[in-house]
């Protein structure tokens, strides 16, 4: 496939024709025949996520050594739910959680010697991904808030209705930035809290949550007798890559006496950079933190983690069964959402050891600095607009011809939101046109999303979204992405002419 | 490691000494050094789950071809949450779900042509394992039951409290056999239903749920204004391998107008045997079915599935986000509990194609027949007692010296439950002694659990538990397991002498 993002562009509907059979075939097949077939109809039409020009999503390139190790991991087929089917993989996973805990919370030797391998404690939970990690954190927080009390046996046993009645709350709520990840919506849906009880707090001009507005929202909830279960800080928003003011959020959580969770699924890896970890200052005040190793830690898909400040935190979801997870055992399954799980922690362990802090320092710094370089190129180019500055290694921008930029600048000054909306509508079409064509050309890939930039009075605006984590993405490739996008823009005969007509009208 | 279950037995506390470091190392390491180290401290102390004498758990041996394919799958690092990061893997996963749906529900060509690749439909959800599959099914069922209605926006948006109030229920409940898997407890805990609202229904002498008692329980709940959300049928209990009367349960679910879920995480693979699939008759009446491919389908850990009879079922949890999962897209992530996920479906696809129905027919029949052979050997041996007959390929038994069996038979006839309890208590100690020693000797491994056999008036009884799925497990190996257990029993100088003394007293 070389460096292109796909061997050849083929519409999904055509690809689907190779996957129409719905009956399991009767006859066994030769492995070689099967392999030949999937090389053509599957592998050739997979996405080259490791291509240096694939800069649209958080799925990272992998170091070569993880491939033979993953084959070994799969072959060993350990099941981490319990010691009997994992043996040494259990202490290994506990060590990985310990190392990630230390990266965040930096406790002393005594702490880790006491709790890292303790049967009745856990420094975190390993899971398939950030969604399960976030759900786990909020599940435990809910169970701790609505715990057993006198005659009441706890929400875990009696359910939400009786729990809220017992504690006298009319409802629970979770406070999070409007940029919070959609997995939080799933979490409150699952937990019976309800999606309307995720209180979406506006962000400032830098896409960071406005803590004053969050405090105000909390007061309003209190007046309505709705208890704030948790504040969630976002450490690396999915769409703009910004980090919430974590220290202030921690202080607010303390005031409200609620759980403080930080969703650092993507941004957490930046803690591995001594130079830039200050960008996540305050994360050590969180009660729980989600980090995905399969995002910026260069581990294959399927390696999520949630870390707990308090080694007793997970007690609120501890469960036992007769044939498994007996009390006092070190079986990891007694304090996780998932049951049977593979030994993915081994690949995180391998990356931490083989790449090391010094290696990650280079990788992370490189990504962040490349994002700053790209931002400068975008700003220097008269026909592009940088929409959000890179705080970590994610930025958004769009193609806006210089003359349109000037006209929009004027409209902004005149607060002519009607005109701005017309510009933005046409620009949205143009951005989508460019993004789709670029993907279809198969040379490079940026993603797109819709955000509400402060400068445009929060009008919804479609932007290109770039995540720079692949160490092989060169400055040349980034420059080429802009050249390609300018060329594609020139092919558009719908939105661009309309934009030019608008300017001419004026 | 040869055929032993572990290279050498080393206490966990000693293994843990190799996993004490809690700081991520500073310096990068050579891959070869790291690999050498983990070969000694990890791989050598992992569990040889593929050993033919490892017959204690459901973790299966793997066909060799899955190893290179898994390396390819990991290397491609696709993210199935959306098309942009998975392309052909998305239709492949939909095909796998279609094939498994067809295996259960056997719908016609039109059905699969209409729904298998339809953007707004799903025949199931692929996930990390059976626990997430069961949670997904019950989550959807809850959201469907407590759906939007007039002013009420649905439990998904407003939460449990308002949902129950709106519909006028005092609580929800789930009815399941006392042998139901512990993941159902996690599911109701998470969903805010509460563990006490899993109504555990007694089983008959064959560990199958008593449907009459379930109906009675449902009537009592109705009197208390508690709505039955779902009936869960178990198709292959984890501890005894029995299948609930699924057809009768389906009829009861219809009477109660509730969801009917079948947890066939382990037993579902038996549908691949034309000879034995009648053992799961009625499964096609289920609204949803959980099957783990990493159990008896010979796929590596991490391949769970839940299948939906109705292609619109998952609408109740559909969610969308701006940068991903746009409405009308074929992104799989809009109808799953998990977010980012690896391309594990490829390994299921490979096994279905390469092994084929004919191959699975041999593998499954072989396992079931081997279990019947082993049961005969246990019954024929005067010092062993078969506690539960194999219905699929799982059985339980224990070592009970012939003279003790005779004395217990008498106690049973005299309904001398006090004496029986004393026997059972000593036998429990002996069973645990044998099981632990056998595991430590490292030649073979059976697991143990605690069940309540009808013949002992439901007294809790510790038993050996054997799952026969590895095609390389020979009759010789099974016979040898009994020889080894008899030899270990003779080493016990606590429980066996006490049992003999009890008999002498009489």
Keywords:
7-stranded mixed beta sheet; 506 residues; 2 domains; alpha/beta; 12% strand; homodimer; Aspartate Aminotransferase, domain 2
Explain what the structure shows:
Two copies of one chain form a homodimer. Chain A folds into two domains: 79-343, Type I PLP-dependent aspartate aminotransferase-like (Major domain) (Aspartate Aminotransferase, domain 2), CATH 3.40.640; 356-505, Aspartate Aminotransferase, domain 1 (Alpha-Beta Complex). In chain A, helix 14 (417-441) packs across helix 15 (475-491) and helix 14 runs antiparallel to helix 16. Chain A is 42% helix and 12% strand. The mean pLDDT of chain A is 94. With 506 residues, chain A is an alpha/beta fold. Chains A and B meet through helix 1, helix 2, helix 3, helix 4 and helix 5 of A and helix 1, helix 2, helix 3, helix 4 and helix 5 of B.
Short summary of the structure?
The structure is a homodimer of 506-residue chains. Chain A is an alpha/beta fold and 506 residues long. In chain A, 42% of the residues lie in helices and 12% in strands.
Please give the count of helices of chain A. Answer: 16
CATH architecture of the largest domain in chain A: 3-Layer(aba) Sandwich
Query: Which shape of chain A, going by the Cα principal axes?
Result: globular
CATH overall fold name of the largest domain in chain A: Aspartate Aminotransferase, domain 2
Measured by DSSP, the beta-strand proportion of chain A falls in 5-15%
Q: Give the name of the CATH superfamily of the largest domain in chain A.
A: Type I PLP-dependent aspartate aminotransferase-like (Major domain)
Quaternary assembly = homodimer
Which pair has the most extensive contact?
A-B, 153 and 153 residues
Pfam families (chains A, B): Pyridoxal_deC (PF00282)
Family (chains A, B): Belongs to the group II decarboxylase family.
Cofactor (chains A, B): pyridoxal 5'-phosphate
InterPro entries (chains A, B): Asp_decarboxylase_pyridox, PyrdxlP-dep_de-COase, PyrdxlP-dep_Trfase, PyrdxlP-dep_Trfase_major, PyrdxlP-dep_Trfase_small
């Amino acid at each position: 496939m070389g460096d292109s993002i796909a061997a050849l562009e083929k519409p999904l509907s055509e690809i689907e024709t190779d996957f129409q059979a719905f009956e399991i075939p009767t006859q066994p097949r030769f492995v070689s025949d099967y392999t030949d077939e999937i090389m053509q109809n599957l592998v050739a039409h997979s996405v080259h996520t490791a291509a240096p020009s694939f800069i649209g999503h958080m799925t990272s390139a992998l170091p070569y050594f993880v491939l033979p190790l993953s084959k070994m991991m799969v072959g060993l087929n350990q099941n981490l739910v319990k010691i009997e089917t994992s043996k040494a993989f259990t202490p290994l996973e506990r060590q990985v959680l310990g190392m990630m805990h230390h990266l965040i919370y930096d406790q002393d030797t005594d702490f880790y010697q006491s709790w890292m391998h303790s049967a009745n404690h856990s420094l975190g939970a390993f899971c398939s991904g950030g969604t399960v990690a976030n759900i786990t954190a909020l599940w435990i927080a809910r169970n701790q808030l609505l715990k057993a009390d006198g005659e009441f046996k706890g929400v875990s046993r009696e359910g939400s209705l009786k729990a809220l009645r017992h504690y006298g709350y009319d409802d629970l709520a979770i406070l999070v930035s409007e940029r919070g990840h959609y997995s939080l919506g799933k979490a409150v849906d699952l937990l019976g809290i309800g999606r309307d009880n995720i209180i979406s707090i506006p962000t400032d001009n830098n896409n960071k949550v406005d803590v004053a507005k969050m405090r105000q929202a909390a007061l309003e909830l209190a007046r309505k007798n709705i208890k704030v279960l948790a504040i969630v800080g976002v450490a690396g928003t999915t769409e703009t890559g910004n980090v919430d003011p974590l220290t202030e959020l921690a202080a607010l959580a303390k005031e409200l006496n609620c759980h403080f969770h930080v969703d650092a699924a993507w941004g957490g890896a930046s803690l591995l950079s001594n130079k830039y970890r200050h960008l996540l200052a305050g994360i050590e005040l969180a009660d729980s933190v989600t980090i995905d190793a399969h995002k910026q830690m260069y581990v294959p898909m399927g390696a999520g983690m949630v870390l707990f400040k308090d080694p007793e935190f997970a007690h609120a979801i501890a469960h036992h069964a007769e044939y498994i997870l007996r009390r006092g055992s070190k079986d990891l399954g007694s304090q996780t959402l998932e049951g049977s799980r593979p030994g993915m922690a081994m690949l995180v362990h391998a990356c931490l050891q083989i790449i090391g802090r010094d290696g990650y320092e280079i990788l992370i710094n490189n990504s962040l600095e490349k994002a700053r370089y790209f931002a400068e190129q975008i700003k220097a180019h008269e026909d592009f607009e940088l929409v959000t500055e890179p705080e970590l290694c994610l930025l958004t921008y769009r193609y806006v011809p210089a003359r349109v930029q000037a006209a929009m600048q004027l409209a902004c000054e005149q607060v002519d939101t009607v005109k701005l909306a017309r510009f933005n509508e046409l620009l949205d079409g143009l951005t989508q046109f460019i993004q789709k064509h670029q993907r279809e050309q198969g040379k490079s890939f940026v993603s797109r999303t819709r955000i509400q930039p402060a400068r445009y009075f929060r009008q919804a605006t479609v932007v290109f979204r770039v995540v720079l984590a692949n160490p092989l993405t060169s400055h040349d490739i980034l420059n080429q992405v802009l050249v390609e996008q300018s060329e594609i823009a020139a092919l558009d005969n719908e939105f661009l002419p309309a934009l030019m007509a608008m300017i001419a009208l004026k």
